[in-house]
Request: fold
Amino acid sequence: MAEPTNVTETVTPVPESDQVSTTEVQNTQEVFDAERAKALINKLRDEVKALKPIEKQYQELKTAEEKRKEAEMTELERAQKRIAELEGMTKAQARREMQRTAAEKYKLPAAVAELIPGDTQEDIDKKAEELSKAIPQSKQSPTLNPTNPSGNAQETEEQKRARLFGNYQDIFKGGGVNFPQE
Reply:
């Protein structure tokens, strides 16, 4: 493998007589040609079509190489690889469990539990305590009766009817016009 070389550029100031004005640059730009653009797009599409099977073949060869390396591994190497995978899963599960218990201990929401950093129980407890101080604890909302969400328990049935339907007046008394009784 070749070692990278450092390239340094030196910038020399251009004399004012050699500088090109912006109007000259605009005049020298090429005009958009639709036919040429379509030809370029079609050429690029053809290249992509030609490269897709090559990419697919590359992926197949890559998976075949991985399978070959797996087959060459000895039984001991396979067992060691599997042990390393299982140890990683076990450590992750133990860490999640420590985070969950610390969140319960310091009354943190379950969604915050996985965000607690640390690898040991002491580190996780310390961070959970800091988080519990930083996050304001929500007060328990009073439990309301689902059939009476307003929580207005002092209102009697008669008062409720009067509030919802208005005062009941018998139309047969007083000829349809009821005057308030004092």
Observations:
- The radius of gyration is 40 Å.
